[in-house]
Amino acid sequence: MGAEEDREVTSQEDKAAHLFSHYSSLLGSLSARSETINWSRLGIQQHDLQHLDSELTEQEVHQAILDAPAEKAPGPDGFIGDLVRALHGIFQLRGRHWNLLNTANITLIPKRDDAETAQDYRPISLMHSVAKILAKVLANRLAPHLHSIISHSQSAFIKGRSIHDNFQYIQGAIRHFHRSKTLMLFIKLDIAKAFDNVRLDYLLEVLKQIGFGQRWRGIISLIWSTTSSRIILNGESGRPIQHRCGLRQGDPLSPMLFTQYNAFSRKQVNKGCYPQSAAIQFVTHKSDVENLQLLLEWFGEATGLKTNIQKLEIYKVNCEALNISNILDHFRGNIAEFPCKYLGLPLRIGRTSRADEQILIDKIGSKLSGWKGKLLTRAGRLQLVQAVLSAIPTYSMTNFTLSSWAVKRIDHLHRNFLWKGSEDAKGGHCLVNWKRVCRSKFLGGLGIKNLYSFNRALRLRWLWLKWRQPNKPWAGFQLNQSNVKKDLFRACTRIVVGNGRQACF
């Protein structure tokens, strides 16, 4: 493992000391704020959330226990979900000595295959069962209110919203301004260690402005101030780290708190800039770029969410008539060209290329060599095809229509692995026609997804959402749907005219 001084550490003691030092500086220290928010200037709408301050009920705790996974990795207490379900009478929790229960073990998950430094690992917290039950009770209380609290433009961590909405919005905006010949610079932002840099003082300010009561904020403060974690290295736990900043990854309440923490970023920075994972900014002058960078610095000082300059990128749309070199003279990020990656998907002005599809095919193929398919039974290979290989392209197919070439290549990999467990199965190895294999089990098939039909259904879903949920952030842009899909949607749906608000004549 590489240390910060470019020195490799190999012994158990040196690795443990390095990890303790790294996460103590990241989670156990807090710098003073040089900027604060003038909340009165933002005009934030307050919500009536005082009922969340009511006492926890036994039914809520019981439901949180039932929601716990039965056999998930245990925390410091060693209890798994099945054992926790046998506990009773823990719903009258008090803050005294809560630090003894609010503990967690941090297990490090590598972000990539060649992970060498502490930054290459993702810290996942395995919480104490009692602390996790409390977090789950609070999360269950809060979840129904997120739709009214959080803007429709933010879709992460909210049930019923999809990360694909953000991609559809960005893609639709870029293509719209390209077709309309509008000058535009697309700025893609990345927040450095967003979860690890959340500040309690700013979070409490946000909760107060939203309308959360004193008791709710007090519980959040209690949980935060008593949190401690130990790093697990090769099965051994390290010294405790007292948290002073950051949210725990693995805590059921953390994603909801982060959503509120970042809920008003757009108002704080700019109406056209949403500092979460991407931003759209219309700039025609040099001062616009300079002011944007100053606003991002100010936002980072006030909230702790600082922009990662190394991953800050700007893309040009219809900027041939502008003196870009002069406008971006003091831009500290990278000047890039389309296509690019956004939310793990290829973002380009034109159609998806075969090169984009090849990346998806290679990702599926990379799974096969590590599975030793020839050593598995055919039933085992069938489960892997259904549960893993067929699921990999779902994320891409939700936003793009795969070409016939890509579908055939993916089906070829599925077929070869199913019948022979390798990549070179011949026709004689295939016992049943592939179209029949892709039928449902009720029709004599094996239940493997038909990629053509599945891709079409995922794409038609956007037309359905356009009718059912007109407040989606991408609703104002043209959907990239062929006339055939539009005709199919019209043929299989029935529209009843109500008050006429959505009727187009």
TrEMBL record:
It comes from the Eukaryota. CDD domains: RT_nLTR_like. InterPro entries: DNA/RNA_pol_sf, RT_dom. Pfam families: RVT_1 (PF00078). Residues 90-347 form the Reverse transcriptase domain. This is Reverse transcriptase domain-containing protein. It comes from Paspalum notatum var. saurae. The lineage of its organism: Eukaryota, Viridiplantae, Streptophyta, Embryophyta, Tracheophyta.
